[in-house]
Amino acid sequence: MSDSSLILDDGVLHCAISVPGRAGSLDGPVLAEVAATLAGDTSGIGAVLLHGGGASFCTGGDVSAFGSATDPQQLVGDLATSFHRFLLALVATDVPVVAAVTGWAAGAGMSTALAADVIVGGPGTRFRPAYPGIGFSPDGGMSWSLPRLIGVARARDVLLTDTVVEGEQAHAWGMLTRLVPDDEVRSTALAVAVALAAGPRGSHAAIKALLRDSDGRTLGEHLPAEAASIAACAASADGREGVRAFLERRPPVFG
């Protein structure tokens, strides 16, 4: 992959989701490329790393384009549909997704960060819904993901009042899964992605599938799926290697 915004290195797919700049807006062509890549053969990808093209993660859509549109309803609807293909690809992929949330994650940038499996930020990280500020309602699944992360009552408050949630509070509420010093956000996220890429990919895929499906099942319905999944993992090459390594008291070599 030659595009500087989408690079595969040592099993980690690096994705700069916003245009270069201090607080860039979403980079539409990159989002489409990410969605297409994740919908194809991902056997060479062990982790996805999302980061901004500048100092901030992403400040959402290009508001200036909304203002100049002759038919804003059509434009924004089309952009949301395209954005949602990207979001669904992130959620549906078997590959773990890590977000390095530096600076601002606002609007669609916040929606994107909340869709990741591991969300790394610092005290200087800022989440803001931003949609009410321009008279819009959320897209990118924010009104679905935020209440599941922080609770319905808090989500109502944050979304309706367009509250800025700073890094430490975001971590306490579960919007960030890891809180590190601001200057270590990207390096920590990269280290997590590299470790995931070197890990048992079949196990990661199974874990993600179980987590996705658990929301629509009772415990009684979910337990057989867990039993089938762990049995399949036990028979896999990585499962056999993991058990051997444990018994031989050495680090496993997966893949």
From TrEMBL:
Catalytic activity of the protein: a (3S)-3-hydroxyacyl-CoA = a (2E)-enoyl-CoA + H2O; a 4-saturated-(3S)-3-hydroxyacyl-CoA = a (3E)-enoyl-CoA + H2O
Q: Which Gene3D superfamilies match?
A: 2-enoyl-CoA Hydratase, Chain A, domain 1, Lyase 2-enoyl-coa Hydratase, Chain A, domain 2
**Entry keyword annotation includes Transferase:** no
Species of origin reads Rhodococcus antarcticus
Give the range the annotation lists for the signal sequence: none
Q: Which family does it belong to?
A: Belongs to the enoyl-CoA hydratase/isomerase family.
Per UniProt, the keywords (alphabetical) are:
Fatty acid metabolism, Lipid metabolism
Q: Which PANTHER family match?
A: EG:BACN32G11.4 PROTEIN, ENOYL-COA HYDRATASE
Matching SUPFAM superfamilies: ClpP/crotonase (SSF52096)
- State what this protein does: Could possibly oxidize fatty acids using specific components.
Q: Which Pfam families match?
A: ECH_1
From the Swiss-Prot or TrEMBL record, give the protein name.
Enoyl-CoA hydratase-related protein
